[in-house]
Amino acid sequence: MAKPSFFGLLLIAPALAMIGALFLYPLGFSLASAFTEPGGGLSLTHFQKAYELYSTDILFTLFIVVVSTLLTGLFAIVISGILTLGETPWLVAALRALYRWPLFIPFIVAAQCMRTFLAKNGLMNNSFVALGLMEPLQATSFLDWRGIIITFVWKQVPFVTLMLAGAMASIDRATIEAGRNLGASRVRVLIELVLPQVSQTLLVGLVLSFVTMLSVLSVPMMVAGSQPTMLTVDMAFRINSYGDYATANALGVISYAIAGTVAWIYLRHSVKREVQA
């Protein structure tokens, strides 16, 4: 087996240095700070404090991210199915032209857009009032947990749809046509023939979306400023208000654990799938 050349290592050295300085060192510092007492000994004191203060926010974060991930997958399947199996040219063309737009919008911009769209006197409610669908006194603000979910789903659906639609487009059309010729509806073809062949791509997109939404600060902070809130806001609050890096790092480790659990489930599913194949 050939040994790696010196010049090869030299070429990747800048990338390795960036990973070490910007990822590995902060990760190690966070872990050490979370598990270390002020005196220097190992302790779970910071985790106990984080649980006592923010246990509700931990559950709230899980609820928001899980629901947003499930809705993202559902909408991505529907849009990808229409793009792949749709028989209405104008609808397919309109979806193909529109669904990618949120993909290029940063989360902080998306949050600001939703603040003006979902507010009590925002664009959504004013449009409903102008169309006569409701009275002005019936208008309610969606700037709470519902607004966070709406923002996350609106932002992440294009990403998952782009991956899923590409995977569906690569499927042999003969399989789809065979199902249609045997009398299966488009919904049945999508669920029973198409989705099993692209489930791995869908799972990858949902895992990446889950981790992304778990780490976003701007959306929960700008869209819903009330309690309960997400862990990213709690971490920023502990640092900015109290300079309490230890508790913030403990919350960060909890976030690592949540993301790591999802990654473990995905890897286990992938390994099992390869073994069965």
Structural notes for this entry:
The protein is mainly alpha-helical and 277 residues long. 77% of the residues lie in helices and 0% in strands. It contains 11 helices and no strands. Helix 2 (45-85) packs across helix 6 (145-169), helix 2 (45-85) runs antiparallel to helix 8 and helix 7 crosses helix 8 (186-214). The longest helix has 41 residues, at 45-85. The radius of gyration is 23 Å and the shape is globular.
Write the layout of secondary structure elements.
Blueprint: H1 6-34, H2 45-85, H3 89-98, H4 107-117, H5 123-130, H6 145-169, H7 173-181, H8 186-214, H9 218-223, H10 231-242, H11 245-276
Beta-strand content bin: under 5%
SS element count, helices: 11
Q: State the distance separating the first and last CA atoms.
A: 29 Å
How much helicity do the residues have? over 70%
Order of helices and strands: HHHHHHHHHHH
Mind describing the biggest β-sheet? none
**Overall mean pLDDT score?**
89
Low-confidence stretches: none
DSSP summary, beta strand count: 0
Radius of gyration of CA atoms, rounded to a whole number: 23 Å
Which term fits the overall shape?
globular
Give the class from helix and strand content and strand pairing: mainly alpha
